[in-house]
Amino acid sequence: MFIRKLIILAESAKFNNYCVAGVDVETGKWIRPISENPELEDAVPLADLKYPDGSRVELLDVTEIKFSDRSANNPTQPENFFYNAKYFWQKVGRVTLQEVINLRGFDECDKIFYNDERSILGADVLKFSERESLLLLPVENLFVSIEEAEDKKKFFADFDYRGKKFYRFSVGDIEVRNKFADTRAGKYFLKDKATVVFSLTNPYVKNAECYKMLAQIF
């Protein structure tokens, strides 16, 4: 077992549970705590997102987490580590987003996960010796598009990054999805400038594609 203090930077929607990610306070590196329960498909249930006093783990909390020694060994998402569900997560502080940026800065990359498309084949990801599935990036001209299919809403984002336009990236940010839950299909302006946690999904069985998601929007 090993212990890390993470600044929680993402709690996005995943199969009625949560995809959680943060940066290590000491190293600034990304860690995605995942459940050892295979039925949860790497998600974190709400029951595990509570401190001993019953309060909820929140964005920008500094949280101490005990991790299992068993490696996740996920080549697509190398930041994944199993947390030990026998122990509560512990809140040890709070920070602001600006403090996070001052601490580690944005991730330096010309491309968002290897290409300029909204997805990439899992096999293509494995061609890169240095892989990553989490990024903290500044974007501009952020719009949310809502699509309706079979009585279900899907949420996508269009935005600019380093002078390039990107379209139809998935949105996992729970607050944004709730904000537009009762809104008709269409495209809506969200922010001039935003700081975004991007996450790359595991390959989908259906088409072997890894999709790029706005996991958290600040």
Word description of this protein:
With 218 residues, the chain is mainly β. It contains three helices and twelve strands; from the N terminus they run E-E-E-E-E-E-H-E-H-E-E-E-H-E-E. A five-stranded mixed barrel has the order 1-2-3-5-4. It is globular, with a radius of gyration of 17 Å. The mean pLDDT is 95.
Notable traits:
3 helices, 49% strand, 218 residues, mainly beta
| Cα distance spanning the termini | 32 Å
* Helical stretch tally: 3
Low-confidence sequence ranges? none
Largest β-sheet summary: 5 strands, mixed, barrel
Q: Which bin fits the share of residues in helices?
A: under 10%
Structure described in brief:
The chain is mainly beta and 218 residues long. It has helices at 97-104, 122-125, 174-179; strands at residues 2-14, 17-24, 30-34, 61-71, 80-83, 90-94, 119-121, 134-149, 152-161, 164-171, 186-200, 209-217. The longest helix has 8 residues, at 97-104.
How would you summarize the topology of this molecule?
Layout: E1 2-14, E2 17-24, E3 30-34, E4 61-71, E5 80-83, E6 90-94, H1 97-104, E7 119-121, H2 122-125, E8 134-149, E9 152-161, E10 164-171, H3 174-179, E11 186-200, E12 209-217
Parallel strand pairs: 3-5, 10-12
Antiparallel strand pairs: 1-2, 1-4, 2-3, 4-5, 4-6, 7-12, 8-9, 8-11, 9-10, 11-12
